[in-house]
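Kindly inspect this today.
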Amino acid sequence: MAPRANWKGFLRLSLVTCPVALYPATSDTEKVSFNQINRKTGHRIKYLKVDAETGDEVTSEDIVKGYKVDTDTYIEVTKDELDDIALDSTHTIEIDEFVPKTDIDSRYLIRPYYLVPDGKVGHDAFAVIRETIRSMDKVAIGRVVLTNREHIIALEPLGSGLMGTLLRYPYEVRGEKDYFDDIQDVKLTKDMLDLAKHIVEKKSGAFEPELFEDHYETALIDLINKKRSGAPIAAKAAPKTGGNVINLMDALKKSIANEKDASPPAKVAKDVSKDAVKGKKPKKRVEGQREMLLPIAGKGGKDAAAKAAPKKADKPARAPARAKKAG
């Protein structure tokens, strides 16, 4: 099921306009998440909105926004007042300028979105805007309003569509000087740099994100599956430390020696699919992918579940999460 659009409106370049939809390009829904529960009853914890002074619960219609100006003083701002100052660009991404992509500092990047034509009309206008940006080898800078706040968005061609990346405002980016002023200005010898470059060359390769594994996520899955199957949880051994680095040159030489003695560990891709729980045909698996732990204690007994448990961990079953709104 395709995710729901976070925003729908119009993309406009001067007098050329087309209806578009904005979709999130990333998702955290596949990550393991936890609920807070009552240790004694196993029930989920719910939170109530209460008055900080009286302790009484407050209904949604009585909750308004307030800006804090003093310890106990707030300026109330109503929804109607916020609507009155709503920007004209609420339903339109207006392209203001075109800039070289290299001019955009990576610190200004927030998150990516996919921009596609909305409906059967406007594909010609969308293609004109997309190919104009592509032919100029630049990034289009526009404005979009998400959750009542205006954001700067950078648009660039991606296949047959557009990728829009939200950008931070200057006041949101901290300067580096306050952090870098205390870094010592040291002189490095050519031998040190040559050794370091050799290490980098040995570890160089193509960027292949599909080969990356979230080791903490894998450990969480393994822990949950063991607890589901009733398997014992072994205490983690204390990590070994290499001690303090006394001599930088010796450390570089030792690093190269270790590279020769041991081949680099292979990155394992983990593509866990919820379809395995629903009985659907699983996605094409990558070597090293885990299998789903299906047996639950109570069906066939705890021993049967433990026997059926795979040696490697995989994503525990859970209900599908709703797509979050952007903002």
Q: What stands out?
A: Confidence is low (pLDDT under 50) at residues 266-313, 317-327. The first strand starts at residue 7 and ends at 13.
